[in-house]
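Agenda item 2: protoporphyrin IX containing FE complex prediction
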Amino acid sequence: MKKHLLILLSVLLVMPLGVAIAGGDAPEAEHQRWHFDGHFGTFDRAAQQRGLKVYREVCAACHGLKRIAFRNLEALGYDEGQVKAIAGEYTVEDGPDDEGDMFERPARPSDRFPSPFANENQAKSANNGALPPDLSLIIKARHHGPDYVYGLLTGYEEAPEGTTLLEGQHWNKYMPGHIIAMAPPVSDDQVTYEDETPQTVEQYSKDVVEFLAWASEPELEERKSTGIKVLIFLLAFAGIMYAIKKKIWASVH
Amino acid sequence: MGSSERTVFENPVVEWIDSRLPVFTMMQKEYGVFPTPKNFNYLWNFGAIAMFMLVTMIVTGIVLAMHYTADVTQSFDAVERIMRDVNGGWLLRYMHSNGGSFFFIAVYIHIFRGMYYGSYKQPRELLWILGVVIFILMMATAFIGYVLPWGQMSLWGATVITNLFSAIPLVGDSIVTLLWGGFSVDNPTLTRFFALHYLLPFVIFAVVFLHIWALHVTGSNNPLGLEPKTEKDTLPFHPYYTMKDSFGVVVFLLLYAYVVFFAPNMLGHPDNYIPANSLVTPAHIVPEWYFLPFYAMLRAITFDIGIPFTDIVIISAKLGGVITMFGSLLLWLVLPWLDTHPLRSARFRPLYKKLLILLVLDFIFLGYVGSQAADATLLGIPLSVFGLIATGLYFAYFIVILPWLSKNEKGRELPASIHEAVLAKNKK
Ligand code: HEM
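Presented output:
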């Protein structure tokens, strides 16, 4: 039986290997401690709210967040009125009206974040031919997403001797292939925080990742807390089943 | 089925139904009193576990289908809507996507059990063959299902795998056009894949029914590989194995739930969270983990096979790979005729046992090779060389080693009966 277990274990060990291949020649980003890590992880509401601010004031100039509706922001701890106010700062296209014309109106909580460009071609032409991806799923769409995006935002360096960068290209430690078309998006003191939180690139990056991680996995808190309950239930259930099984089998042999 | 002897039931309603359609008699016979060897170990749980997973996949799949749309402009968004806006949608989808993986885990262990204890041998050949058919259908279903969320890996995985069929002489290109419904993997491909993904699980269900029917004709094998001789060797299926199977299912469920709730994307590829884009090829196209050993065998053939010293190619590298991959599965179908050793269980065949363990390690290693980029190296040697060697070993095991062992392996002495072996073990 031990041998069988060993084999089972090795199969389980090899499986993740299939997905653990790192992209390109870039080093794996260093692991950061995230509030949402671990079995009991939750999002840090304050960090999320700061991250939203960074997204809105910086990233939103180039990146969309089209899968998130303003009403979803209630999950960050805003009340209905605050969400309405945030939505009201955006205009969205609606229509057609009774005359058949499209018109602009202030966004409502049920609207989604408007994307900064009308279409991919416009986005590319404004960014030296590179497409800034929508950030709604970015954390799930990269290996070790939170660490990677944090690494990317803090990983700009001088290009090593001998590398020639074209117009609009930058050197980043963690980007696969190291060449990225996004200029370092944030610098110290660029976004004003209302409290004492340090206004550094590291802090901005950490906060925006906390926010984007939620955007990718809005179900994370519910998933983990349900998971704990399910596991406890199944453990107890397995225990009872085992006891009954033992009792039934006691007379055999 | 079931027109022979009927049990008389006390409950009048049950009796009324049973005298007209003896389903209760059948259940009683096949799952109540069904004589089952008493010496099963926990590896015998994986059939019930696989059945449980099949039902889970069908139930979660049907509910997903209620919210899903098969259309290249909408599928990715539909899945995200399931994840974000449908009540419990994230749970459904994670149960379904990880359920595929756990279904394969269960079935791989189930197949290993069959090989280890010689469950494919006379008189269970057809039972075994039906099992291999189920496995092949599962691979088709899972491959097609992976296309449905229409992410980058969906599109590019489908492109790579469907392209393989073009290597088949004469009809290859027509097959590919038929699979695609056009000239590339596109909307017609997605819609027909959805239709097939809905259909195939029910075909699997039907083959599972035949598989179990065949099982109930021959009865189960057991760790000793001895046929039960007297009543002392067996137990009624209920309550002994209903209870043991239920316990096993719950333990398996525990592992499955762990992954669903705490690492739901561990077994998936992040690129599938990028919407499909036919203009951008992902850096590495990797199939789901359960295909990796076969994918490695597919890529192991990197050279054309032809007549030496001429330019005549008989089998192109591509066709060679396709033949190798499908051949690796066909070998399972004919396994009962490759291993004709009279002893079933590896317990009494020390040499067979060691070599089978080596085969499993070889298969796992192939999985590793399949997970790596085509140009990867190991210890400075191209990984494809190792892939070719491991593929060679895999084929050698079935075509050379098994027939040789069948003739030459002595084997250990068998106990007189299951009952006596169990008694002897309990004395120790
Ligand atoms: C043999 C059983 C089945 C297997 C092995 C299987 C496998 C899969 C796999 C691997 C995926 C991709 C998961 C992902 O990455 O999102 C998938 C998706 C899907 N399957 Fe199945 N499936 C099975 C049965 C069914 C059934 C019976 C239905 C009912 C119609 C169904 C409906 C769907 C739908 C709608 C999707 C797309 C939604 C999604 O990707 O989450 N499946 N399936």
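Discussion summary: The first helix of chain A runs from residue 2 to 17.
Owner for follow-up: CH.
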